[in-house]
Amino acid sequence: MRAMHGHTKVAARQVATAFDLSGFTSACDLGGSTGALAYELARQYPGLKVTIFDLPEVIEDAVFFKPHGPEAGQVSFVPGDFFRDTLPEADLYILSKILHNWPDDKVHQLLSRISRSCKPGGGLLVAEQLLDEDKCRPLPALMMSLTMTVLFQGRERSLSEYRSLLQAHGFTDVRAVRTGSTSDAVLATRA
Known about the structure:
This protein is an alpha/beta fold. It has a single domain (2-190), classed as Vaccinia Virus protein VP39 (Rossmann fold), CATH 3.40.50.150. Helices cover 36% and strands 24% of the residues. The protein contains 6 helices and 9 strands. The strands form 2 sheets. Strands 3-2-1-4-5-9-8 form a 7-stranded mixed β-sheet, with helices on both faces. A two-stranded parallel ribbon has the order 6-7. The longest helix is centred in the first third of the chain and has 15 residues, at 2-16. It is globular, with a radius of gyration of 15 Å. The relative contact order is 0.17.
């Protein structure tokens, strides 16, 4: 958890500010672990309430990472399994370093669940390393993709692959920002 917390914190500000998210009032960070990205979103958007939805054993330890600033009051934790349990309601769903962990069938299962929960006009923010369209660059994303394939049968994807995946699940206006950090940002709107 400490490693993932540190890795997420490195890119949290860039991901949180890659798009103007001020139109959203509630967010649900699926698999949000310690809340590193959630707390940064709360700092950047004082009107945003963020729910972290993660396994009970993860949430139990997340208390050790809670900041002392005012943003702490905007973030709450709900235990659950995003493949089995009902997802909390939100205007914006967040998947940070989640999709690259899973093979395509599980990715489709998760995106289908999010699509059913997300109301029209709602959003989905994905934070992952984007591969170029030739899938040979940038080197850090390529190395991460190889690692995820060997360890979990997952992988990093290009923007066109994310666009196809998200559109297949009812999301439109798929846009991306390369943050220059350890995670890029993809934002899509539920049709």
